[in-house]
């Protein structure tokens, strides 16, 4: 029994160690599996990490390339920005210059506007002065037109009176010459007076008897008397002798003519006509200051000794002055 028991004990011990070794082998196998799985996972993880790193490296390379491109682009943009900045500075400088020029121009414009305003005021004043001057000119022109009409009328009157004298002298068969411009009628002294005498000859009185009524009636006619201001009897002498003696002789001869036809013994004129003549007739002596010349320029002594009958229209001096003004205006 004891031997059986010993065998049984050795058998149990042997079974125990077999079970234990199996257990250890199983555990070792499990450990190996775990280790293998861990290594596998590690390798797989490493491969994934490697792939991930490679992917990241590729991405990084791409990003670096992109970064390089961006840096290059940024550099280009910086250069462009620098260029643009310089251009902007240049433009700003130009703008500042233009602003300064604009300010100067504005100041000049303001000065010109001020000057223009002043000129406008002056121009307006000048326009007012011109308008006033034009009004004065129009008024003067109106007066000149009226005066010209008066002149034309008086010129027409003179011409008409001269023609009346010519016609009346011809009708009376009087051998007289009426100046077409002035209406003056001239008689040589030899017809009226002896040489160096102021007493009328009978032939002179006879001439005056036939001439004066026609002359006076024409000038004092109803048509002409309102225009006649003066009848002038004017004596002239030749160049012989001194001035004063010839002045006295020429005056005395003119006075003799006037005294004759205003005397009571002159019947060719009415008392009323004589009275009218006293207010307008004058007797003047000119000595030798207005001689008559020959064509060769020498003095015609006989023709210079003469008596002239002249007439002056009313306002003739004023008309002569107006005529001068009108001629200057023309």
Keywords:
single chain, 330 residues, 60s Ribosomal Protein L30, Chain: A, 7 helices, 4 strands, 72% helix, rod-shaped, Bact_OuterMem_StrucFunc
Describe it.
The protein has 330 residues and is an alpha+beta fold. It has a domain at 172-329: OmpA-like domain (60s Ribosomal Protein L30, Chain: A, 2-Layer Sandwich), CATH 3.30.1330. 72% of the residues lie in helices and 8% in strands. It is built from 7 helices and 4 strands; from the N terminus they run αβααβααβαβα. The protein has a 4-stranded mixed beta sheet with strand order 1-4-2-3. The radius of gyration is 74 Å and the shape is rod-shaped. 12% of the residues are buried. Residues 180-315 form the OmpA-like domain. It comes from Candidatus Onthenecus intestinigallinarum. This is OmpA family protein.
**Which parts are unreliable, with pLDDT below 50 for 5 consecutive residues or more?**
none
Average pLDDT, all residues:
84
CATH structural architecture of the domain at 172-329: 2-Layer Sandwich
The profile of the biggest β sheet is: 4 strands, mixed
Main sheet: which strands, in order across? 1-4-2-3
- Strand residue percentage: 5-15%
Helix and strand string, N-terminal first?
A: HEHHEHHEHEH
Give me the CATH superfamily of the domain at 172-329: OmpA-like domain
Strand segment count: 4
Q: What proportion of the residues is helical, as a percent range?
A: over 70%
Question: Radius of gyration over alpha carbons?
Answer: 74 Å
CATH topology grouping of the domain at 172-329: 60s Ribosomal Protein L30, Chain: A
CATH class of the domain at 172-329: Alpha Beta
- How many alpha or pi helices? 7
Shape verdict: rod-shaped
What's the end-to-end separation, in Å?
191 Å
Structural class: alpha+beta
């Amino acid at each position: 029994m004891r031997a059986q028991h010993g065998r049984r004990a050795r058998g149990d011990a042997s079974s125990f160690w077999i079970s234990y070794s199996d257990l250890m082998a199983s555990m070792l196998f499990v450990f190996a599996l775990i280790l293998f799985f861990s290594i596998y996972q590690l390798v797989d993880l490493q491969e994934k990490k490697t792939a991930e790193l490679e992917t990241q490296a590729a991405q990084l390379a791409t990003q670096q390339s992109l970064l390089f491109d961006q840096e290059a682009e940024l550099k280009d943009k910086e250069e462009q920005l620098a260029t643009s900045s310089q251009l902007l500075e240049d433009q700003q400088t130009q703008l500042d210059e233009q602003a300064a020029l604009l300010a100067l121009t504005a100041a000049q414009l303001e000065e010109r506007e001020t000057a223009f305003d002043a000129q406008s005021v002056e121009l307006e004043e000048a326009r007012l002065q011109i308008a006033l001057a034009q009004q004065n000119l129009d008024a003067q022109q109106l007066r000149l037109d009226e005066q010209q009409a008066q002149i034309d009328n008086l010129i027409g009157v003179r011409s008409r009176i001269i023609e009346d004298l010519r016609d009346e002298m011809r009708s009376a068969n009087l051998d007289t010459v009426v100046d077409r411009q002035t209406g003056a009628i001239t008689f040589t002294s030899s017809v009226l007076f002896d040489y160096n005498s102021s007493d009328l000859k009978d032939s002179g009185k006879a001439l005056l008897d036939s001439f004066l009524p026609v002359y006076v009636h024409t000038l004092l006619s109803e048509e002409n008397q309102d225009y006649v201001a003066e009848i002038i009897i004017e004596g002239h002498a030749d160049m012989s002798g001194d001035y004063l003696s010839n002045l006295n002789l020429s005056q005395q001869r003119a006075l003799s003519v006037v005294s004759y036809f205003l005397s009571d013994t002159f019947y060719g004129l009415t008392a009323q006509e004589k009275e009218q003549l006293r207010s307008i007739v004058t007797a003047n002596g000119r000595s030798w200051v207005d001689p008559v010349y020959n064509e060769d320029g020498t003095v015609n002594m006989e023709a210079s000794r003469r008596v002239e009958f002249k007439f002056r229209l009313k306002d003739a001096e004023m008309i002569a002055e107006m005529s001068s003004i009108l001629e200057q205006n023309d």
